[in-house]
């Protein structure tokens, strides 16, 4: 029997090079896909460290003396973030940035690595001593960062 030699066949060296190139291309595509999934599940670059509430003022809602509390925050993310809202439990609260570690920052924007003290005002309400409260800070990209604290008794 006579072996047929076709000039159209690839040499083993060329076939190996093509196989290696395809393997590298597929592994790069899989690595990019897995990286995108990790970023999606980990919530991106915003990372706000919210400290324990302190300096509780219980207030008296009957005379419009709203309760307030202070919370220290630090932006540990890679980009600036804007605190757009604050909630205490399910109630909307108002807030003001009292001090920052960077004097050039204005409003409610925190630069990367910047710390601030936030006064959270429980508008229309007062705090009850001994009852735990969840304080949630919401960023402009709608991510929530929370802390829990209990006002001390009188």
Which features does this protein show?
alpha+beta; 1 helix; 154 residues; 9-stranded antiparallel beta sheet; rod-shaped; Immunoglobulin-like; single chain
Please explain how this structure is put together.
Helices cover 19% and strands 37% of the residues. The protein is α+β, with helices and mostly antiparallel strands. It has two domains: 11-42; 48-149, Immunoglobulin-like (Sandwich), CATH 2.60.40. Strands 1, 2, 3, 4, 5, 6, 7, 8 and 9 form a nine-stranded antiparallel beta sheet that branches. The mean pLDDT is 85.
The number of helical segments is 1
Strand content: 35-45%
CATH architecture call of the largest domain: Sandwich
Number of domains: 2
Structural class call reads alpha+beta
Q: Cα-atom Rg, whole angstroms?
A: 28 Å
Order of helices and strands, N to C?
Answer: HEEEEEEEEE
CATH topology of the largest domain: Immunoglobulin-like
Summarize the structure.
With 154 residues, the chain is an alpha+beta fold. It has one helix at 12-41; strands at residues 48-50, 54-57, 67-75, 81-88, 91-100, 109-110, 115-122, 133-139, 144-149.
